[in-house]
Amino acid sequence: MAGPGASADGVGRRDFLKSAGIAGAGFMVVGRQVLGGAGFKAPGEKLNIAGIGVGGMGFANLKECEGENIVALCDVDDAYAAKAFARYPKARRHRDFRRMLEVQKDIDAVVIATPDHTHAVIALAAMSLGKHVYVQKPLARTIGETRLLSAAARRFKVATQMGNQGHSMEGIRLIKEWIDAGAIGPVREVHCWTDRPMGWWPQGVERPRETPDPPATLDWDLWLGPAPARPYHPAYHPFKWRGWWDFGTGALGDMGCHLFDAPFWALDLGHPTSVEATSTPVNGETAPLGSMVHYRFPARGVHPPVTLTWYEGGLRPPRPVELEDDRPLGSKNGGLLLVGDTGKIMASEENARNPRLLPETAMTAFRQPPRTIPRIHGSHEQDWIRACKGGPPAGSNFDYAAPLTELVLLGNLALRTGKKLYWDGPNLRVTNVPEANAFVRAEARAGWGL
């Protein structure tokens, strides 16, 4: 097994980053012509796209990119990635993303759908070489990493997109247009909820004591990447990593980037002034089984102060009196409720699908305002591909996605400390609970630091 920060063929991350022009704890800008990146393609040209983490959501993302050239596939688990390998037999296969980026010079853009804890290190390496990047939500595991990635995207002038696909859909545009048109008056309350993690992955559990050998198809050291070393266990991989603090960001990280998206955009939320949480017991290993997180935002332009409350693990807000008895509150996956002075909007899915005014008689009588927001033609991935070819920036590019992800991850700081936190967003720090700032950034395993 390769040691920390080194691939099986001896390519260490530190050596790779030196060759890319990144040194120490920061990074320096190196011209794309020096790094050999392909830059922006013309609209009529096809992109050469690589997938990193192709066994789960990354496989679905690549299917949406099949109008381009899928030239490389990288995954640390050959068995989990087998369906992608079979679908794209002409793509070169890799286990170590560093080796792939070093030896395969034809890559223009990279789709990253690995566990949360490796998003930042992979995306930064790709952007530093002039590669456009599509990164699954949440953008990163820590708030500090989100800031680093948005800064890098601007410096390296690449097209970016976070994989919160609802941002390209019709529902989120309708909600923003309705809010802008005053359909429910000033909004002072927002409620977002999900069933996660129930039936999806473990939370509220301690580290397993068993230490089975990893499957022969899996490079466990590469899977760990920047995370602290620990023995392999099937409690982590595949997919079950989401609830573990070292690897994932819990239900908030998984679903918050979907459910917070519409209010974040429509209400111009920005930074909250405070956040506090109540939950089932929290331990140092995993997120809790269920929680409520309360965010408070100051007045913003035409918008009054607003509270946003998050519910997970089967918890939900009180049922609105306007909601008819035969209609469900949201769906099994989650829901969104915006409470205005003169009305309410409910969306029944995690991607703000099917927004409706409450009660249904108000929806029936409602006259749709003019469309003011451009619609996305095709998928979320195709929106990014157009940006890679010199079109408008993708809707959830990192300048948008990073602050949205910060908001989501801030709730995890409140969960892990159990205290009300006052947040200084511009300076990236909790002002009243110094120990909470330890979670804003994370120490990486030797050889994997940013």
Would you kindly provide a written description of the structure presented here, covering whatever features stand out?
This protein is an alpha/beta fold and 450 residues long. The protein has 14 helices and 15 strands. The strands form 2 sheets. Strands 13-12-11-7-10-9-8-14-15 form a 9-stranded mixed β-sheet. A 6-stranded parallel β-sheet has the order 3-2-1-4-5-6, sandwiched between helices. A hairpin with a 3-residue loop joins strand 11 and strand 12. Helix 6 packs parallel to helix 7 and helix 7 runs antiparallel to helix 14. It is globular.
Beta-strand segment tally: 15
- Strand coverage percent: 15-25%
Helix content: 25-40%
Unreliable parts: 1-38
- Overall 3D form: globular
Oligomer description: single chain
Summarize the structure.
This protein has 14 helices and 15 strands. It is an alpha/beta fold and 450 residues long. The chain has a nine-stranded mixed beta sheet with strand order 13-12-11-7-10-9-8-14-15.
Give the key terms.
alpha/beta, 14 helices, 27% helix
Task: Describe the SSE topology.
Blueprint: H1 13-20, H2 32-35, E1 48-52, H3 57-63, E2 69-74, H4 82-87, E3 92-94, H5 97-103, E4 109-112, H6 119-128, E5 132-135, H7 143-156, E6 160-162, H8 170-180, E7 187-194, H9 220-224, H10 250-259, H11 261-266, E8 274-279, E9 291-297, E10 306-312, E11 334-340, E12 344-347, E13 356-358, H12 360-365, H13 380-388, H14 398-417, E14 421-424, E15 429-430
Parallel strand pairs: 1-2, 1-4, 2-3, 4-5, 5-6, 7-10
Antiparallel strand pairs: 7-11, 8-9, 8-14, 9-10, 11-12, 12-13, 14-15
Helix pairs in contact: 6-7, 7-14, 10-14
